[in-house]
Amino acid sequence: MDPQILKLKRKVKQYKEVLQNTRNYRQDWQESLKAKIITTLEAITKDVGLEAKIEERADMENLEAIILSLGNSKSGMYQTVESDIKRHLIKHNGSLVYQQLFNGKVIVLIQYPFIEGYGKPQPPKNIAIYRPEELTEPFFIRHVEEFVNTITHWEDYDDDEQPNNKIGFQMSYSPSLEE
């Protein structure tokens, strides 16, 4: 048989395997993974005392998501509309998302906290993409830990970690050797 045909046959076989994997991953999500993600996140948040709610988003079949959300709150900032009327800026406290991709794999990402009307939200931070069988409890614990670290860093933001951010004359001042 022609070597080019053999090569093409192998590629077609691989393609069919990938399509079957997508069907298997989607079936796994529906039959067990979705429930596993929810129960595991509930157990972890309970064990560590993290007040969060777990939401299921199922607007589109096979593109569903499980979201561990810290909810919304008043930011402590407000806009004065009139002397006795104030409009509070709402703070979205961040979330950890497990979402199905088009191919049945699961992307895990962190949505940063943000305050409506105060800058633009940062794009989500991608943690990784997993096949359903790869998502085991140690991964969930690491994801929640990375989520807590990320939002803690956001809440405690300052410029100490930014090198060379001095203000004023110190930026360009260099004493002359003659002094």
Would you mind describing this structure in some detail?
The model is unreliable at 164-179 (pLDDT under 50). This protein has two helices and eight strands, in the order H-E-E-E-E-E-E-E-E-H. Helix 1 crosses helix 2 (137-155). By secondary structure, the protein is α+β, with helices and mostly antiparallel strands. A five-stranded antiparallel beta sheet has the order 1-2-5-6-8. Strands 3-4-7 form a three-stranded antiparallel beta sheet, with no helix packed on it.
Compact overview of the structure:
36% of the residues lie in helices and 27% in strands.
What is the end-to-end distance? 87 Å
- Tally of contiguous helical segments: 2
What strand order characterises the main sheet?
Answer: 1-2-5-6-8
Please provide the ordered H/E string of secondary-structure elements.
Answer: HEEEEEEEEH
Tell me the number of strands.
8
| Rg value | 24 Å
Shape: elongated
Summing up helix and strand content along with how strands pair, one would put the structural category as alpha+beta
Strand content: 25-35%
